[in-house]
Request: fold
Amino acid sequence: MKIHCVKSRNKVFVHPVWINDFMLLKDKSMRLQPNYLYPMSLVELSSHPLQKFTPPPVEEIEKFANPLRFYFRPQYFGIDDVDGSKPAMFVTNHTIYGLTDGFLFGVELYKQRGIFLRALVDNMHFEIPMWRDLIAKIGFVKAHRDNCSALMQAGENVLVFPGGTREMCKHRGEAYQLVWKNHLGFARMAIQYGYDIIPVAQVGGDDAFDIRVDADDIMKSWIGKFLRDSTLVKKYLHGGDNIPPITTGLFGITAIPKPVKLYISFGERIDTSRYLQNFDDEENLWNLRDEVELSMGKQFITLLEYRKKEKKGLLSLFG
Reply:
């Protein structure tokens, strides 16, 4: 394993960069002004009263989770140490397409620890008929700082994806990278409302599909040249950066995800109270974000090493 020292604002972090197929991205060049969760303008708040929401019975949610459990066989690490006595912000990564991101471990937390997560998700989810009704029923809300504030004021456990849509739209070679760009909103909200952060790392999902064509390929093609100046690409696809990749899954020819095993790790709770006096200070926001990223990077490495050893153990059974 190679270790890389990253100097960040006069501080040096000993930071793991490469291990097998993993690279943790520390994109300091994208640091601009703080964004609050995911940058949106004039986002309509969820029509569902946030503070009147009642979680459905766990048995009802498990009806949706059981087929996914059977297919992906998730294994959890550190879930028994998650303390549900105080609400927290759970911060996690997106895998390609975000197929099961947050859902399976959210159900497991609800079942084992009595912790129900309110996930803040991209606005596009609420544009899809029927799907928007389903996700609203299980507590999802639009990712916007006003919604996040309302949830925290109500003492809810919240789930955020700082990488947003860009992290789901993987480019070739981005497996298990954190593509958070200049997003600081989650750190600001956690500090402002006195929420601890629990970093959650997910491994496995990025191997469910093989990328054949990514956003870079598309934008370099004649189609990309045609779309480059279109309103669609500029407004919704961030100049093409958020174009979903073209992939193959099962058997290398289908759109069905491969039945990969998922590994999910819950990191140690990060106390944000030391930043409370200056919750809007950008230096503090970056310090907290760095701490969360470093925790997730260590978890990625642990999970990938565990997976590698597990696969070797299985192969040894067959000589």
User: Anything to note?
Assistant: The chain has two domains: 23-209+257-317, 213-256. The two ends are 27 Å apart (CA to CA). The chain is about 35% helix and 15% strand. The CA atoms of residues 23 and 174 lie 7 Å apart.
